[in-house]
Amino acid sequence: MQLRARFTRLERYVLNHSLGGIVGAIGVIAAMIMLINFVEISRAIGRRAKDITTFDILNLTLLQSPAVILVLAPFAILFGVMAAFANLNRRSELIAMRAAGVSAWRFIFPAALAAGTLGVATVLALNPLASAMNAEFQRRESQLMDNYLGAINQPIWLRQGERGRQVIIRAKSRIPGVGIRLQDVSLFLYHVRPDGHLDFVQRVDAKEADLRNGQWRLTGARSAEPGSQSVQFSAYTIPSTLNERTALERFAAPSAVPFWSLPGVIGRTETAGFSATSYRLQFDQLLAMPFMYAGMAVLAAAFSLRLVRLGGLARLAASAVALGFFVFFLNQLCNSLGRADVIPPFFAAATPPLLALLSGFTLLCYTEDG
Questions:
Q1: Model pTM score
Q2: 92-115 pLDDT, tens per residue?
Q3: Does 31 share its domain with 175?
């Protein structure tokens, strides 16, 4: 009750306007993205896939678009809050608030709170939903093009790891169908020393390999160990730490992995001997997303406080958009530097949101507090 009393009617009014502006901006951006995706999917898939219908293309568009919308969501926050405050300014409501002695910090806080709350909802719910839809898009796209796991007749590489053992798997191609079935497979087994070095233990070649119930079932296998002759087996099994989902994670982009699955993917990737930097960076970026959204809201509000009668509001709005694009490209630059291990993933993820927040606070301090 005490928190509700502190959240005054004026702040709720600004909050409602900010949410309305954000929802409107997201709707416009979503419509543009879906239109572009529909045209692109029609061009890229419609010409190659057989018996594809307009309904199939529309379905693929609906599955792919949420992941792209989330990438551009900071711009929706920027444009939405800017439009809301420009509307309040044009109707002289901001003048009335200031004449009543209300500090700008009070009516900017609801906008930042709305954006930050939307960021939390995006991380906890919308990101897993968009990732699942994107995975379904990739599955259906591959089915339509008869190409579910990489291109046909191109080598497939997998790697599984557990304490004390590493297995590298190479296959000529994947057999279409349910599950993981590989053709012309070679498995290289290594023993992991305490110091991390690998000792080659065994090689197994097989005509087919079927991943089922926590093990590879090999057909037409031939096993060989260092210093001994090869042995032929009609059937051979090797324990596996992979399943269909975790095996395909090797081919999935970090952005396609849901937030709740990222810690497990990081652990399995490192156990298998791969670098998990990309997944760690994605995890840190998702944790920083509420601060990015709040920073964009503060930036938009700070650049929209100038009174209409003083002029120059359009120039300030253009400056806010330019700064928003700068933060976006800085985020992409930090993303590239983080994936290349030039800077730690945490700093790569935290730098753009902090810059957006500090820029907005600096402008507010300059304009409101002198």
A1: 0.73
A2: 777 777 777 777 777 788 888 889
A3: no
In a domain, 124, yes or no: yes
The closest alpha carbon to 327, from 70, 78, 122, belongs to 78
Q: What are phi and psi of 92, to 5 degrees?
A: 65, 20
Query: What is the maximum alpha-carbon separation in the chain?
Result: 92
- Crossing angle of helices 127-144 and 54-71, in 10° steps, is 140
Q: Model confidence over 11-30: pLDDT tens digits?
A: 888 888 888 889 999 999 99
Give domain status of residue 350, yes or no.
Answer: yes
Q: How many CB atoms are closer than 10 A to CB 337?
A: 17
Residue 151 · residue 54 · CB < 8 Å? no
CA dist., res. 324 & res. 339, Å (int): 23
Please count the residues of the chain. Answer: 370
**311 CA to centre of own chain:** 40
Same domain, 132 and 177: no
Asked whether residue 141 falls in the same domain as residue 6, the answer is yes
> What DSSP string describes 72-137?
THHHHHHHHHHHHHHHHHHTTHHHHHHHTT--HHHHHHHHHHHHHHHHHHIIIIIHHHHHHHHHHH
What backbone phi and psi angles, to 5 degrees, belong to 165? -150, 140
State which residues form the domain around 216: 156-251
Let me know the angle formed at the C-alpha of 366 by 360 and 369, rounded to the nearest 5 degrees: 110
* Main-chain dihedrals φ then ψ at residue 116, nearest 5 degrees: -65, -40
Q: Which of 251, 285, 304 is the last residue of a domain?
A: 251
